[in-house]
Design brief:
Distance between the termini: 27 Å
Strand content: 25-35%
CATH class: Alpha Beta
Mean pLDDT: 92
Oligomer: single chain
Shape: globular
Low-confidence stretches: none
Helix content: 25-40%
Number of strands: 11
Radius of gyration: 15 Å
CATH architecture: Alpha-Beta Complex
Strand order of the largest sheet: 1-3-6-7-8-9
Number of domains: 1
Length: 162
C-alpha cells in the first residue's frame, strides 16, 4: 500500500483507494485490496455515495487463501470489464503476477533484466519483484523512486494536469 501511496503522492491526477467497493457491472461489486485510477478522463468515477463506478485502470489483490479465486474468476471479471492492469501477490506461493490487458486478453508482464516490472498504464510505477517477495521494502521504494525520476513519468504528470 505504501508503494502505491508514494506513487500517487508523486503523480497528481491519479487516485488511490484500498478495500473500496468497485461497481463494475450489474453482477460484480468486488472489493479489491487496492486500486489506482486516473481521476479525470479515466475509465471510472466516484459516485455520490463514494463508490468507484466503472473499471479502475489498475487493481491489486493480495492473495493468500483466495489465490485460486483471484487468478480465475476475478481475472475473468476484470478482463471483461476492461481493467487495464491487474496485479496478484500470491503470498503463500511467494509469487507475483502482473497482467496487462492487450486486445481483450490478459498477458503477463515479465520483469526486465534488472528484475523490475514497469506499469504500461502508469509510467514510473516500477516494482522490483524479487525485493517485494523477499520483504526488502527499502529496495522496493528505491526502485519506485527511480521510476518516478524518468522522463516518461514527468510527461504523464504533465498530460494529467492539462
Amino acid at each position: 500500500m505504501g508503494w502505491l501511496a508514494i506513487y500517487v503522492a508523486a503523480t497528481p491526477g491519479v487516485g488511490f483507494a484500498d478495500n473500496t467497493t468497485v461497481l463494475l457491472d450489474v453482477d460484480n461489486e468486488p472489493q479489491p485490496d487496492a486500486i489506482l485510477r486516473i481521476e479525470q478522463g479515466g475509465q471510472s468515477r466516484i459516485t455520490e455515495d463514494d463508490y468507484v463506478e466503472g473499471a479502475p485502470e489498475l487493481i491489486v489483490e493480495i492473495a493468500a487463501s483466495s489465490a485460486s479465486y483471484d487468478l480465475h474468476e476475478k481475472l475473468k471479471v476484470y478482463r471483461r470489464n476492461q481493467v487495464q492492469e491487474y496485479l496478484v501477490w500470491r503470498v503463500y506461493d511467494r509469487q507475483f503476477d502482473w497482467f496487462r490487458l492487450n486486445a481483450g486478453e490478459y498477458i503477463q508482464l515479465e520483469p526486465n533484466p534488472d528484475d523490475i516490472i514497469c506499469s504500461q498504464v502508469f509510467p514510473g510505477l516500477w516494482l522490483a519483484k524479487s525485493a517485494l517477495l523477499s520483504g526488502d521494502l527499502a529496495k522496493v521504494l528505491a526502485i519506485l523512486q527511480q521510476g518516478l525520476s524518468t522522463p516518461e513519468h514527468q510527461s504523464f504528470v504533465e498530460k494529467l494536469s492539462s
